[in-house]
Amino acid sequence: MLESHKTLTPTNTKIVIPGDSPMHIGNSKHIERLKQYGDVTLYSTMPENPDDQIKRCEDADIVLNSRSTLTWSGATLRQLPNLRLISTTSVGLDNIDLAAASELNIAISHQRGNTAAIVAEHEFALLLAVARKIPQHDKRIRENIWEPDEGKHLFLKGKTIGIIGMGNTGMLMAKYAETFDMKVISWTFNPTKALDLPINVQFLEFDSVLQQADVISIHTALSEKTHHLIGERELNLMKKGSIIINGSRGGVIDTDALVESLRTNHLYGAGLDVFEIEPLDSDHPLKLMDNVVLTPHSADATPEGLEYLNRDAVDHIIEFLEGDFSNLYQPYV
After folding, report:
1. What Rg value do the Cα atoms of the chain yield, rounded?
2. Please, where are the H alpha helices in the chain?
3. Tens digits of per-residue pLDDT, 257-277?
4. CA–CA separation, 318 vs 310, rounded Å?
5. Would the N or C end of the chain have less CB density within 10 A of its end CB?
6. CATH second-level architecture of 116-294?
7. How do residues 21-47 score in pLDDT, each as one tens digit?
């Protein structure tokens, strides 16, 4: 309970940023705001292992997790008796054992959609790049090969896009698709929450979306329910010659099944910003395929995106210290 902890003040609050690499918040102006509320320690390298992670955070009252690749298992959290809040610069929380955090009364805050337009723009760019083979043509021209692949590109107007997960980013992806005169269908866990969307969207059963869509765009969080939500069965249900776009979390797609579907040309192509293991191995089969467009988990990495993420993560810490728990994922009571 809140009363069982020491009262945090600017003179005794220890705030740790345990692994800011590549640099995310380290050169942000919001660090100076944070220093007014406690002693801030920033590590510009990632922990070498869980023991190093624990050592860096052993005295922390608050952790600002600026990199989603740094995970927080129950075993790690149990070694941090002072920890009261983890504030993240990510939307997804699949890197934190939420059950253990709740058990230990550790509050969690995450991003609530301020970067949705930035992410959706990137994902629609992936769709255009795949449909029009833009990276492949760029590469060939640089190799002095002039081959326009006439008749092998996809025209999006009139095609059907299936949005998997109609949250902030999914809604904007649907809105962008609508401006290209695409038909929008969707499957989401909570369709009743999306009834007043400013777009014309038809909600269908999961399999129906897969079967009817020319493009599948994934916008759902990674959880036990959504791990490998798209596997061999689901890919086989998709139309031959369709496209899949993923900018949510890599684990939503079974990578081995996706590789096979791309290898056999069942899918026209894929645009991927996220992967089950990041970074990709040097010899990963996806790197050898010319019907895939890959970006390094960078959908929100514009100056505006970094500003929103850093600002909000710091805002959530300040709000917490001032007794405002309204932006917490887990209310700290």
Report:
1. 22
2. 30-35, 50-57, 74-77, 98-103, 116-131, 134-142, 168-179, 206-212, 232-237, 255-263, 303-321
3. 999 999 999 999 999 999 999
4. 12
5. N
6. 3-Layer(aba) Sandwich (3.40)
7. 989 899 899 999 999 999 999 999 999
Known catalytic residue at 233:
no
150 is catalytic: no
Q: Is 310 helix (H, G, I), strand (E, B) or coil?
A: helix
> Is 58 a catalytic site residue?
no
Q: Is the pLDDT of residue 5 over 80?
A: no
Which one is catalytic: 228, 297, 307, 311? 297
- For the segment(s) 2-113+303-321, the CATH number from 3.40.50.720, 3.80.10.10, 3.40.1400.10, 3.30.1230.20 is 3.40.50.720
Quote the CA–CA distance of 199 and 202 in Å, as a whole number: 10
**Predicted TM-score (pTM) of this structure:** 0.91
Distance CA 99, CA 106 (A): 10
